Amino acid sequence: MVGCGDGSVKLFDISVAQFPVQSWQEHKREVFSVYWNLVAKDTFASSSWDGTIKIVSFLSVTVQENKRGIMGRMLTIAF
């Protein structure tokens, strides 16, 4: 899973010929940090230079949460 400069998050699987496996366009600016939830394995969080945090479940393909940063840009994210 990678965060991209165009605001997207892409999921790759080296065992599959097609890549990326899935892509989400959730942010308006560069994605700075992506973190996979090790408990709810269908969920990841991403933070962006647009000042938002997104928590996404890729099974339901919905954004569960959209938070705005308190002090501006988010530099990292973790569960």
Features:
four-stranded antiparallel sheet, 79 residues, three-stranded antiparallel sheet, mainly beta
- Overall mean pLDDT stands at 82
Approximate helicity band: under 10%
Low-confidence stretches: none
Which structural class matches the secondary elements?
A: mainly beta
**What would the principal axes of the Cα set say about the shape?**
globular
So how many helices?
0
Read across the widest sheet, the strand sequence of neighbours is 4-5-6-7
Biggest β-sheet strands, sense, barrel = 4 strands, antiparallel
End-to-end Cα distance: 16 Å
Strand segment tally:
7
Structure, described:
- With 79 residues, the chain is mainly β.
- The chain is built from no helices and seven strands.
- It has strands at 2-3, 8-11, 22-25, 31-36, 43-48, 52-57, 62-68.
- The strands form two sheets. A four-stranded antiparallel beta sheet has the order 4-5-6-7, with no helix packed on it.
- A hairpin with a 4-residue loop joins strand 6 (52-57) and strand 7 (62-68).
- The radius of gyration is 12 Å and the shape is globular.
- The mean pLDDT is 82.
Helix/strand layout:
Layout: E1 2-3, E2 8-11, E3 22-25, E4 31-36, E5 43-48, E6 52-57, E7 62-68
Antiparallel strand pairs: 1-2, 2-3, 4-5, 5-6, 6-7
Q: In summary, what is this structure?
A:
The chain has 79 residues and is mainly β.
